[in-house]
Amino acid sequence: MKKWREIRQGAQYQLTSRFVGILLGLLFVVNVAFVSISLYTIYDYLTNQAEEIFQTLEDLPQETSDWEALADATIAKSEDDAIRFVLADGPTYYSAEGKEIFSELAKGRALPIFKGVIVVGDDVYYFQQRQQVDRTIELAIHGNMVIEMVSRMLMISLFLNIFAIIIGSAIIYFFVGKWSRTLQRMTQEMKEIETTNSQEKQLTVPDNPREMQQVATSFNHLLVTQRQAIARETQFVTDASHELRTPLAAIRGHVQLIKRRGQSHPEVVLPSMEFIDKESKRLETLANQLLVLGRTTTNHSEKRVDFSKLVKQEIEKLQTNSTQIVTFSVEENIHYPGNEIELQQVCQNLLDNARKYSPSDATINISLRAEQEIVLEVQDTGMGIPDEAKEKIFERFFRIDQSRSSQVEGSGVGLAIVAAIVDKYQGEIIVTDNHPKGSIFTVKFPRR
């Protein structure tokens, strides 16, 4: 009973039952129409037969000495038909067995829908009367043969309908079952992915139907995206823990040093306090950068930012705070719809990155121009970036030379912030080599 309930709840059973229901409804309408048309055709046929007989009698002479022979000749095509001549002077003449047939018609039942149709037991007659000069002609045409022929056609049609329902149901059940098995396989694979937590397993993409193929493809794409996001977040937690642990451990070490030796050796207090101040600022900077990185996915109010003015302001800060030679080429009146703080973060982090990784006497060149896109370009003459690291530098906390990471200020989050903001504005950031040495960071914002 439970298994039958599960079968009834399945897509295969429900779709097949709906198909059969729709097919039965259509066949019912078709058969009703067939019966209606058949009845109208029979009635029209009998009417035409009667009209032909009356037309033939009108063309015959009105006077004859043998009325019974004329009656038999008129209905010679069918022995079951009957005709009666009622003359004006009184005599009445019947065809062979006509008297008995008309006697039975008097006891029959007329159908209200079809005028002139009389049912006598198992027989159906079409009765019509016509007045011609000095005689009245009454005609009864037997319709059983035509009705039987149409009934046979209807039975054949019903048999073909039943055959079509059986074959159609079997075919639809087979194909729906095939699709249902595809869905069941996909469901089973989803459960396996959930239980095994496999990082490689994906759904098998069926060849057809197209909708299931699209669902499986979209799910696999979502699965890859989710796994990548989980991997990034796991790496982020690991890296963040490492970055936070180092300054915190150093701060605690100096706090313990002050506790142990501060009173007896006051000379250690000032250096320790300066170190604590430096590391706490580093923690504050890191926390602020992580908050900025988290906010890049949220919506901000946008306005037309004077991008040219903003870039020039950041260049002035760089010239003030760095020993490098700064050259620039900034087109005027480039405005861009966006959040001013985010666009400032892009400029600030790119320029700061160029300053940190360029020698003190090197040259940094910045350009801003409006082409098909808004292009911001920062060129440095630092140590350069290996090809295998060009994509990784935008990951959080990634450093090209881990052995020198403590010698270069910063937390390794700046370029990740740049990448997140550029991606938010559907832009693109490209890293290429600057010859003879150094790197070129090119940011392209689409015009909006």
Short description:
It comes from Candidatus Enterococcus willemsii. This protein has 448 residues and is α+β, with helices and mostly antiparallel strands.
SSE order and pairing:
Layout: H1 2-9, H2 11-59, H3 67-74, E1 82-87, E2 92-94, H4 98-107, E3 109-110, E4 117-120, E5 123-132, E6 135-142, H5 144-196, H6 210-261, H7 269-295, E7 303-306, H8 307-321, E8 325-330, E9 335-338, H9 340-356, E10 363-370, E11 373-379, H10 414-424, E12 428-433, E13 439-446
CATH class of the largest domain: Alpha Beta
How many structural domains can be distinguished in the coordinates? 3
- In percent, how much strand structure appears in the residues? 15-25%
Question: What is the arithmetic mean of pLDDT?
Answer: 78
Count of DSSP strands: 13
Instruction: Please describe the biggest sheet, giving its number of strands, its sense, and whether it closes into a barrel.
Output: 6 strands, antiparallel
The fold-level CATH name of the largest domain is Beta-Lactamase
The number of helices is 10
State the shape: rod-shaped
Strand order of the largest sheet: 2-1-6-5-4-3
Unreliable residue stretches: 402-407
Q: Helices and strands, in N-to-C order?
A: HHHEEHEEEEHHHEHEEHEEHEE
| CATH 2nd-level architecture of the largest domain | 2-Layer Sandwich
The whole-angstrom Rg is 49 Å
**Quaternary structure state of the chains depicted:** single chain
Helix content: 55-70%
Structural class: alpha+beta
Main location: membrane
EC number: 2.7.13.3
Catalytic activity: ATP + protein L-histidine = ADP + protein N-phospho-L-histidine
InterPro entries: HATPase_C_sf, HATPase_dom, His_kinase_dom, HisK_dim/P_dom, HisK_dim/P_sf, Sig_transdc_His_kin-like_C, TCS_sensor_his_kinase
